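Sequence only, no structure available. Ideas?
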Amino acid sequence: MLCFIYVLNFLDRQLLSILAKPIQESLQITDGQLGRIGGLYFALFYCLISIPVGWLADKTNRIKVISVACALWSAATVACGLAQSYPQLVIARMTVGIGEAGGVPPSYAVISDYFPPSRRGTALGIFNLGPPIGAALGIAFGASIAAAYSWRAAFIVLGGVGVAAAAALYLIVREPRRGGLDRAEGAPEVAYKAAGFLETLKMFFSRKVLVLAALAGGATQFVTYGVGNFTVLFLQREKGMALEDVALWYAMVVLFAMGGGIVVSGWVIDKYVRYWRAGYALIPAATLTLSIPFYIGFVWAPDWPMALALLTAPTFLNYFYLSSAVALVQEEVAPNQRVMSGALLLLGMNLIGLGLGPTYVGAASDYFRADYPQHSLQMALYTLVPFYLIAIGLFIWLGQIFRRDAANQREILT
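Reply:
I predicted one. Tokens follow.
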């Protein structure tokens, strides 16, 4: 059920990028404006509201928080479909961000209290199928509804589904006991008092491992959100892909490649980090390195079938960081600090990735338009390659910390 709510979360978030071309034509907005509304404006509210929401959820019923948040972002999605100008669309998208801030961090904590540590990587990997399924359904249904009726109808219909799902979540899912599965078998149960806001904030930013996980994830998301928010527009405008083809073929790539990457990454994390904690960092570093040549090929490809085929590999490999970062943070903090710690992780990742990635690509496309009027987005997407290298470097740095800690532990034991 939480995965389904996450599907709707990501579906509503991705509709703007999926329907970018008809929205641009209807409201007369530039690539730069599109990048800001899908990136900076959305992320500011999404990230900053997530901190007080995380603190509230750590002290109250997390299922109620998620239900109210889902109802809010779904109603705001309907409002996006009713917008008649760019400022109205900005306000509606900001409201979507406010609502979505209450969706993911409480869900991380609820799942961590439903599954023991040995199964959390896989469980969180299944939950993190929300983005690929949501993106794929958004592409399939959003593009199909827009092609048959209008882009406005897609926002209204899919937002309405979310309002109904919010009520269903509240009725179906029970609030689990906090930290109930963290103690060893036979150990006495520990009563966790509510964690203080400043206490959790100080703990998170004093732990280099947690901060590096957020920064490395943010650098990765700079690439994934920067590309993701403009892929459909790029395929349509510069590769000649029709909206009907987007609804079928691109949806399949997102569903199976991104979904496969997230599921496989959860399984890999569970399998290896039991005895190799550096795997939390070095596994994402390796997959991002493998992704780079395929990404360059995708941007270079002369037509959309070749571009889409080459995009499959980066779509699979780019998302290994997600299950790794989430599982690492949930393992490293106390049960009564999990929601806010998850919110702080998302704050770091999304302010960098979601806030700056699409904003940067849109601005770069506007910059290149004078010299490359037919291929401005292609040039902008090429400039994301150095950010791959930054993300890889940060993950390697994190891996070195784990390896040094493991070496120190061996010295103490011997």
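The two ends are 48 Å apart (CA to CA).
Hope that gets you unstuck.
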